[in-house]
Amino acid sequence: MKMPLEWNVYNFYLSSIELFDEITESLSSYAKGLIQSDEMDDFYYNRYNFPPTPPYLRFGCHNLKEEEKLMKEVDRLTDEGKITRKEIAKPDLTDVDGLVMDCIKLTARKITETIKAYLGKTLTSAQAAYLIHLTMNNFFGYQQEREIYSGLTESMKNSLEAAKSRLKI
């Protein structure tokens, strides 16, 4: 599924790293309501914490019809002092073998929610590592899985350096 380029992406800076779960849940729940009322197609989020930059949640919306409706919830969280700053971010439209990166992020969110619903909890780090390993093995087999991890290590290193550069850390 190749997603069109209609993305609204925001960075929401939090007053505390401890608010990641609460803010993520609040915005996700609100976004799901917008999806049900046909106000947008879907969404993703990513959590970032690069001290000394305040922690922030990147929130991407696909085909958001009225930004004001999402901002209503963001403004509520801002009024409560939980979100300290909001800014428009650029969509990540990098093409990865026919999928834009923001579509991959959206799919990752859906997978995460499916796992949480199935297990009734968030995975531990060890459980997540095994889940990733065994899922990749099911997709590709051991040899190709090893090659993917080798390339992924370099890709993650480059992404981290790019993020630090953008944030001037």
Short characterization:
By secondary structure, the chain is an alpha+beta fold. It has helices spanning 20-36, 67-79, 101-119, 125-140, 142-167; strands at 7-14, 42-48, 56-62, 83-89, 95-96, 99-100. The protein is built from 5 helices and 6 strands, in the order βαββαβββααα.
Describe the structure.
The chain has 169 residues and is an alpha+beta fold. It has two domains: 7-89, 2-Layer Sandwich (Alpha-Beta Plaits); 95-167, no CATH class. It is 54% helix and 20% strand. It has helices spanning 20-36, 67-79, 101-119, 125-140, 142-167; strands at residues 7-14, 42-48, 56-62, 83-89, 95-96, 99-100. A four-stranded antiparallel beta sheet has the order 2-3-1-4. Strands 5-6 form a two-stranded antiparallel ribbon. The protein is globular. The protein starts with 6 loop residues before the first strand and ends with a helix. The relative contact order is 0.15.
